Amino acid sequence: MGESGQFRIEKDSMGEIQVPRAALWGAQTQRSLQHFAIGDDRFNAAFINAFALVKKAAALSNKALGALDETQTALIVQVCDEISAGQHDEQFPLSVWQTGSGTQTNMNVNEVIANRGNELAGGARGSNTPLHPNDHVNKAQSSNDVFPTVMHVATMQALKAQLMPSLAALIAMLEHKSAEFDAQVKSGRTHMMDATPVTLGQEFGAFQAQLSFVRKQLQEAQAGVAQLAIGGSAVGTGLNTDARWAQTVAAQISALSTCEFVSADNKFMALAGHEALVDLHGRLNLLSTALYKMASDIRLMNSGPRCGLAEITIPANEPGSSIMPGKVNPTQVEALTMVCLRVMGNNTTVSMAGSQGQFQLNVYKPLIIHTVLESIGLLSDAMNSFREHCLHGIAPQPENLARYVERSLMLVTALSPVIGYDQAAKVAKYADEHDLSLREAVAALGLLEDAQFDALVDARKMLFPFESKTR
């Protein structure tokens, strides 16, 4: 190794290359920086921390199996802990848009751990003593099995720490709002047209039920994410690994991450396909469709305040217009629905990328994990923001709700069992054409007495199935 000004000279199988003296990375990372200067997307800190966790687990497992000595293991563990503590964030500069196996990021992590470890041991960066990035830090591993392992670890951690708590909090708030609005009767709508009555509480209860269904789907998908590829080596055969390696390192990852992981039954599948993450993202897409539906309904119910439905009010968080004074817009709804559309687009990306598993390796791994983590992060943040700054402060507009119910022609549905469908339709048409209430139309057509009408047409009695008298 030599030095020249602000650079040092490192070597790899391709020969010599200049590396910034201040950098902990080595030759292979530097080549990637030069050859893949594409965009500004970088793997986030959570993903790099998951990588450090897997490398720490690998070192401890190799030591347990007699493949690493005490000193090498201790150095690797110390550096991995430093990375997890955020001490070396600037040392992971590579673009997401790189080799499809993630090899360059794997080597970036290996080189940083080796160089920092050698520095801690009193050696020089690039010396490969006492730690070599391939021989020691990457021991018993291939990028082809360690990168997808990190993909699953990072995804599971993001689900546990971000998405599932955010979703649970949103469901809890919807449950609270459903109970709060239980007495608020309003006009139902189907096909964006007047329908029979519901309560505002029933509407918010439906939102809660939709999201509870999605939560169950997301919980079920985690069983696939919990299966790890590590131990498959380069093509799935486990070449150059101890027969105990896969189970040992999976158990060690579980212990360090506090998530339950297992060694994948079929390592060929774990390297060549990403069905677990494609499936998971499909359920993130399902979450997006449910969130979009809820947000869109809230946007419509809030429309106005004088020329729309104005059935509810939402918090006024900020001025809505640079030209129209006093305007308040549903900005949290807009932010949430934009995130939903992004995730729906991401689902197409993940689906296409997941299909690219030619022979023994899928080579769209960086794209898949970058997209999955983006979707999880966006949905988590957007749900929290919507719950805190919009849903929490929603209030009903009782006068408008009552007025719409009173004017709804679809209350005539309650008359069908008594006067028949055809006559009920005639009443609705007559009321609409003559701008009458249903009560007035029934009287004008001579079909029922006022007292009979009042007994039959009660919006609150239309909210549930009738009780059978034959039981």
How many separate domains?
Answer: 3
Q: What's the CATH topology name of the largest domain?
A: Fumarase C, Chain A, domain 2
Average predicted confidence as pLDDT: 96
Oligomer: single chain
The helix content is 55-70%
Please tell me how large the radius of gyration is: 31 Å
The named CATH superfamily of the largest domain: Fumarase/aspartase (Central domain)
% residues in beta strands: 5-15%
Q: For the report, how would you describe the main beta sheet?
A: 3 strands, antiparallel
- Which structural category do the helix and sheet elements fall into? mainly alpha
CATH C-level class of the largest domain is Mainly Alpha
Characteristics:
two-stranded antiparallel ribbon; 471 residues; mainly alpha; Ribonucleotide Reductase Protein R1, domain 1; three-stranded antiparallel beta sheet; Fumarase C, Chain A, domain 2; elongated; Fumarase C, Chain B, domain 1; 3 domains
